[in-house]
């Protein structure tokens, strides 16, 4: 039986920013080792449908793109498939050229065929030389007349290792418009829906998705496949745990596919992830990449890892991310041809085999932050690896316009990282985690950001209280964190259009290049700067005039922790540019919080072995299906 591994697709949206992800009708050159466009031939009018495109006479179009090249190295490494067939359907005179790359991004031609009229051309390709990396793709060159690519797919005759479908779990909080758009995209993609058992839409918000325009229509189209679940706000972990729980009851499902709410979905990616999960030699988690919803050719990470000693997440090859496919295509980006192995994948899109959930449990009751990384680490220790699969992706609102490290989410950033470290870190006393956590407090204190320090202190106190607090406070931790903001004036975002905020000395401009670009202290200078600043804030009271009116103004990009502490007060733009915050130094607050931070971190370090044992002993109960079922019943 012939099984489709991957379809060649083109974008639903008529958005020129999307085109480089699907087709590359441009000529590229290299100047000073950087790829540049020398002739723009991208025309949306040549996209004829979901699977078809026109190749203009005398022009060349490459399908060596993110969504249409075949990630051969991942299929060789994680599955037993060793032979694939590329079938290309065309009309008109054309030349088809098939290429491969290796892990270094070096291109090699595999085959060439000339076609004319209505043609179906097949290429049998082996997957035996892609251990370190590499893709396979094809180009179409039109002859004296226009040619039409009618469709193409990558197939195999091999049977998959597992044949069950996937149930989808979408967790939402007041994003009804996004959810309806996602449901519409699914309803319009029958080839993806063939692999879907149920769609669990877990609505935890105060703006019901069922009230959104268009919901009734798309719900009717999806029929029994869609199941809407209303529950109290238990955060992302509570919503995704509900989807895991419901999917465990579905005998036709082998997987649960987790999807965030504020996303735009490429349905072919959904189909590919499920097919890959079916073919994986051993059960694996299949993660999708994240493109920026507001800058659509920009990919924010290829594979994500957790560094053991500081116990902190990051992108693999972080200095190369994000990658802008509008500036450098796949064929011009050697790094992207390497096979990269991930420790975890964000739950904006992640396929999880049910056998992993049965063995290691459901999500940690973390509300938000670190629940995805912790689960993948837990699954990885049990033998279920995470594969962040190229060609599988969606568009998600990025973190560029967010201040989530200084708003109420700072509590969850701190608490859940430490809890994950207690559960999984092998470094003595958490390695550098505690020292890094205390440095975060010091930076916030020097920046006059007292609210996140208060949240982080609450997080440490809760961690020290033991693992029982996580289930007990699951529904209350977020409102309590938000309520705490009322005591900190710097949390107020000033947006009044009738008032213009000014600082006493105007916007701080770093006129000298070395101050603007290279003033970040390092080494001994960093130590001296930190000591002097901490001592100065402890001893010196702010000038009354600087308390009455901000002393200086910073743009968000200039408000670094080594600049703002030089002043008594500062006016700082918010990350999304919608308003401004006023930060004012409070010596009494600073002294109290600094002393508490030192005390709590010392206590955490002293008690780390005992706490690690407590949390690891409690983990099976915290993540059990029975415990989550009881939580859901309480929220009913």
What does this structure look like?
The protein has 636 residues and is of the alpha+beta class. It folds into three domains: 3-156, Spore Coat Polysaccharide Biosynthesis Protein SpsA, Chain A, CATH 3.90.550.60; 165-303 and 341-396, Spore Coat Polysaccharide Biosynthesis Protein SpsA, Chain A (Alpha-Beta Complex); 417-589, no CATH class. Helices cover 33% and strands 25% of the residues. It contains 19 helices and 26 strands. Strands 12, 13, 14, 15, 16, 17, 18, 21, 22 and 23 form a ten-stranded mixed beta sheet that branches. Strands 1, 4, 6, 9 and 11 form a five-stranded antiparallel beta sheet that branches. Strands 5-10-7-8 form a four-stranded antiparallel beta sheet, with no helix packed on it. Helix 6 packs across helix 19 and helix 10 (410-424) crosses helix 18. It is globular, with a radius of gyration of 27 Å.
